[in-house]
Every structure is written in C-alpha cells, then in structure tokens.
Amino acid sequence: MPEVYIHAIEGRTLDQKRALVKDITEAVVRNFDVAADRVLVQIIESSKENKAKGGVLFSDR
User: Fold this and answer.
1) What global pTM score does this model have?
2) Which residue, among 6, 1, 15, 14, has the nearest Cα to 45 in the 3D structure?
3) Fold type of domain 3-48
C-alpha cells in the first residue's frame, strides 16, 4: 500500500485538500499500477507559529 505524506502550513480550504489528494492518488495509481483504494495520503499541517525557514517563523513573515 503506497503512502504519501504532505507537510504543509495550515490554511488551505477543504476543497483544496480534496483536489490535492485526488490528484496525488491518481498519479500514484497511474505510476505504481495499484488500485485507488490502496493509496493512503495524509496531510500533516503545522501552524505558522511552529514552522520556520531561514531562522524566521512563518508567523513573523
């Protein structure tokens, strides 16, 4: 069972998440030759206060 983990900062809409997991699932089905119900996609969200780039929190950008 292929598993795909997406790490992202919170703030996307439910519709955006639905579209993303649909597209990712279709790509895995096409490239790994597995059924869609075998593909697990998990979105792991972080708050802007808990993620930084270049030493600066995203909440401070």
Assistant:
1) 0.87
2) 6
3) Macrophage Migration Inhibitory Factor (3.30.429)
Q: Are strands 56-57 and 52-53 parallel, antiparallel or unpaired?
A: antiparallel
**How many residues are listed for the chain in this entry?**
61
Instruction: In whole angstroms, give the CA distance from residue 43 to residue 20.
Output: 10
Catalytic residues, which ones? Answer: 2
* pLDDT digit string (tens) for the chain, length 61 residues: 999 999 999 999 999 999 999 999 999 999 999 999 999 999 999 999 999 999 999 999 9
Among all chains, which residue has been given the structure tokens 């929190």?
57
